[in-house]
Amino acid sequence: LVSVIQRTFDRGGNLVIPSFAVGRTQELLYFIREIKEQNLIKGHNNFRVYVDSPLAVEATNIFSDRSSRQCFDEETLALLDAGVNPISFPGLELSITTDDSKAINFDKSPKIIISASGMCEAGRILYHLANEIGDEKNTILIVGYMAENTLGRRIRDGEKEVNILGDHYHVK
Question: Residue 127 — φ and ψ, nearest 5°?
């Protein structure tokens, strides 16, 4: 994950991650918090991470609820006991409204966009893919299962042109 983020940011691109709203998104936030905490991305220390999905935001809030201690492993409990939220960090932006989602496109600095619909079949991820997939500086990172014939699977399998929201895009 560190090398993908570093390469993408070094070329001035954005990292777009289609992710399942519950579980996978929070796992990514956990790893990104560690990456930021350990300063593993060089030259882009203050990069933003957008979670663009109302469901993922709600799930993240539930995962952040310290009253759910019985659900956490020892490592996470140790972080909580040290006063660290294991899935929150400076630069994390939680996008709930449509206007929040649209505003992400106005942030021209390299960033990570995590958006729900892990198989890229619906939701806000489609708009981010349409906005980002045609620029070779960007990276679309597949982090989960993609069923056959889904847009996510076609991207993962290397299709050079895809249809998103009725328009054709060259995958660069």
Answer: -70, -40
